[in-house]
Amino acid sequence: MAKRKFWTPDRIVTILAISISLFTLIVFARQTSIIEKQSRLSVLPYLNMEMGYNPDEDFITLTLNNYGVGPAIIEEMKISYMGETYEMDFANFLQNDFFIVDSIAVLASASIDEGLAIPAGADRIAVKFGGSGDRYIKTEKFLRKLERNEFDYEIIYRSIYDDMWRIRGSNDIPEEL
User: Fold this and answer.
1) From CA 98, how far away is CA 150, in angstroms rounded?
2) 150: Cα within 13 Å, side-chain hemisphere
3) Of 82, 93, 114, 117, whose CA is between 20 and 30 Å from 64?
4) Bridge-partner residues for 72, per DSSP?
5) Considering the entire predicted model, what is its pTM?
6) What is the pLDDT averaged over residues 72-96?
């Protein structure tokens, strides 16, 4: 009986076909991973809270901006002040009983509640203070006093893919959760 060779043309073609199929599978899996990452990055929100001073028109604004390329959906808003935590937005916080703000005028405010979506490139004025020159100066002093008394905020938000981030007043760079 003659000994059969292992490397016959049929086996070489079969092994080559299986190898090409496995290589194609690996490339396809890698491409899918890259496409998924690109898809997530194409809707990445980037929130930033900014305080704007305009002494010419006598107003100060606290604005939540989305500098990202996708919508930011608010999950939670907390304010810390003098060791206490309040789950409310800025306007409601300032209207609390422990503040005496008769001389400070809130010209406009908007809620920053759970479920609020801030589109890419958009902003939301959280609070706009102002009035006459005297009220502007008192508002400026009031905001500095808040900062000295351990005032901080935390906003947790997500993308449409449910990736979560947090910004704080003490560190306005988004932290991924």
Assistant:
1) 15
2) 6
3) 82
4) 118
5) 0.73
6) 83
From the number of C-beta atoms within 10 Å of its C-beta (0-12, 13-18, 19+), residue 64 rates as buried
Give 36's contacts (C-beta < 8 A, 6+ positions apart): none
**Tokens for 51?**
């305080």
Bigger pLDDT: 105 or 103? 105
Exposed/middle/buried for 155, CB within 10 Å: 0-12, 13-18, 19+? buried
The closest of 166, 158, 66 to 115, measured between CA atoms, is 158
CA atoms of 96 and 131, how far apart (whole Å)? 21
What token pair was written down for 77? 């808003």
Report which of 94, 127, 122 is spatially closest to residue 110, judged by C-alpha positions.
Answer: 127
Longest dimension (CA), the chain: 111
For the chain, how many residues are written? Answer: 177
Residue 97 Cα distances to 80, 94, 146, angstroms: 16, 8, 15
